[in-house]
């Protein structure tokens, strides 16, 4: 092997490792942005509760995966309707209704999983879970607690009337 080839090969390997590291760190960073993901919540739980939560969600993995797949398919169908050359209002209504139904199925499945989990938790851990769930889906959610509207800020008028 020539010296030039060895240098090029080594640089290629180093660049590939850097790229894999960058992609991996980006994926980890994005995982922290998932809805409902709150590292402080997880750290606030006892190790036994964290283990029980992990086991409960692991047991329902196939069900969760099916719901996620249905949601992806519904979103894709809606995007196809929106990207069509000619807009079809009936197709849009069907796609939106399907997406709403799938999200409802997902939430019912999630609620069932939490119910199964909650019956095995001590009251203090259920309170923590309840606070977490009460904030779930709220605009701003867990990550932006500090951005709550202050009471001295005027409420914006969205009626369009003066």
Report the mean per-residue pLDDT as an integer.
Answer: 77
Low-confidence stretches: 142-151
**Structure annotation, total helices:** 6
- Strand tally is 0
Strand content: under 5%
Order of helices and strands: HHHHHH
N-to-C terminal Cα separation, in Å? 79 Å
Structural class: mainly alpha
Task: Report the biggest beta sheet as strand number plus sense, adding barrel if it closes.
Answer: none
In percent, how helical is the residue content? over 70%
User: What would you report as the Rg, rounded to the nearest angstrom?
Assistant: 23 Å
The coarse silhouette is flat
Describe the structure.
- This protein has 162 residues and is mainly alpha-helical.
- It has helices at 3-31, 39-44, 47-59, 61-83, 89-118, 123-135.
- Helix 4 (61-83) runs antiparallel to helix 5.
- The longest helix has 30 residues, at 89-118.
- The protein starts with a helix and ends in a 27-residue tail after the last helix.
- The model is unreliable at 142-151 (pLDDT under 50).
């Amino acid at each position: 092997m020539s010296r030039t080839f060895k240098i090029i090969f080594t640089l290629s390997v180093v660049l590939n490792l850097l790229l894999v590291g960058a992609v991996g760190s980006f994926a980890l960073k994005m995982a922290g942005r998932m809805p409902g993901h709150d590292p402080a919540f997880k750290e606030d739980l006892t190790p036994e509760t964290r283990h029980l939560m992990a086991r409960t969600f692991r047991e329902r993995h196939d069900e969760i995966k099916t719901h996620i797949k249905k949601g992806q398919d519904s979103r894709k169908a809606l995007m196809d309707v929106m990207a069509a050359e000619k807009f079809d209002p009936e197709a849009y209504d069907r796609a939106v209704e399907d997406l709403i139904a799938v999200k409802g199925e997902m939430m019912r499945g999630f609620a069932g999983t939490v119910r199964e989990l909650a019956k095995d938790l001590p009251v203090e851990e259920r309170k923590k879970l309840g606070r977490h769930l009460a904030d779930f889906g709220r605009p701003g959610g867990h990550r932006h607690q500090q951005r709550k509207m202050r009471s001295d800020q005027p409420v914006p008028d969205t009626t369009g009337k003066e």
